[in-house]
Amino acid sequence: AQAEKAPYPHFMLKEIHEQPQVIRETLRGRIEGTEIAFPGLKLDPGFLKSLRRLYITACGTAYHAGLIGKMLIERLVRIPVEADIASEFRYRDPLLGPGDLLVVVSQSGETADTLAALREAKAKGATVLAITNVVGSSVAREAHEVLYTWAGPEIAVASTKAYVAQVVLFTLLAVYLARLRESAPPELLRELAAGLPGLSETVQAVLAREEEIAALAGARKGWEHTFFIGRGLDWAVACEGALKLKEISYIHAEAYAAGELKHGTLALVTEGVPVIALATQPALWEKMQSNIREVKARGADVLAVTGAKAAEIVAVADEAICLPPVHPLLAPVVAVVPLQLFAYYAAVARGCDVDRPRNLAKSVTVE
Ligand code: G6P
């Protein structure tokens, strides 16, 4: 195993660095110019056009990809999407039936709760589309249709490249469905499709700033709890950033919708508490600026992950990682990368066993 991760000290770091390639692989054969197609996908276009709502279910990191899928599909396809954790979804007699589509997301394709939700949906007559990374996995075999994330084997327990591939796939799916249903302005859909292949280079540009991000993580010493805040897509990215940090560094991290802070959580923001503020959506910068001011006023140490031209965010944060220019709807793919590196270097600084965190399994096949 030592040889396989070389020259990287951990599989997680290797897999983080594979992401530009994974983005290319996940797009391969599915995008031609600005045309999107899913060769081999047999879902009837009539069925996809008639969908009145959509369900997404998954566990852990895959669920966080599902949250982004929900927001992108709602935004572009204009139908309600419910995204829920599989262990909740399956036990609540989900309102699924013939004519409904459930998208299940699973890197391994073996997660017990996700598989059980899939079976429950099938038993109720719904159609199941799986997004998975493992060919021939239980989820792949049992779903009606499969879209593979071509991320290659993921060894580190904390998922990175599979998540990025899941988000890319949801973006493709949202644009594809929106074209089919003519539910979004064609020029917006063209812009998104044209922007997708470039994500590989954009992520590469973020990876080139690894040292800067490592220094930001290393500089925060003796912290035991932190908040990740954001709105909309950034909130979903914040959820994933917080999970990464918890999984491998054991620092308590809570992701919070920035606007909800004042309804209780702000009480926990005191002098020196690190807050990672996600602000990649220009339409929400003004609101995020006031949320950052709110936590700054309580003494928080704010690290912003924001856009290239976000002067109003940079002005109020203590430090900022400014991402390369990217369309706001594509930003989740890019914004998660510094958070992965941040979690990685925070864990390394604390001497944690990054690839094999305590109490966690790569694939949870028991309920
Ligand atoms: C475990 C892993 C997580 C993963 C989750 C779902 O808890 O530790 O990293 O996100 O399972 O796994 P799946 O294979 O279904 O995506």
TrEMBL record:
Gene Ontology molecular function, alphabetical: carbohydrate derivative binding; glutamine-fructose-6-phosphate transaminase (isomerizing) activity
Enzyme Commission number, as recorded: 2.6.1.16
Keyword Hydrolase: no
Catalyses which reaction(s): D-fructose 6-phosphate + L-glutamine = D-glucosamine 6-phosphate + L-glutamate
Keyword Ribosomal protein: no
Sorted UniProt keywords: Aminotransferase, Cytoplasm, Glutamine amidotransferase, Repeat, Transferase
GO biological process: carbohydrate metabolic process; fructose 6-phosphate metabolic process; protein N-linked glycosylation; UDP-N-acetylglucosamine metabolic process
Protein's cellular compartments: Cytoplasm
Record note on quaternary structure: Homodimer.
Name under which the protein is recorded: Glutamine--fructose-6-phosphate aminotransferase [isomerizing]
Organism, scientific name: Thermodesulfitimonas autotrophica
Species classification: Bacteria, Bacillati, Bacillota, Clostridia, Thermoanaerobacterales
Name of the encoding gene: glmS
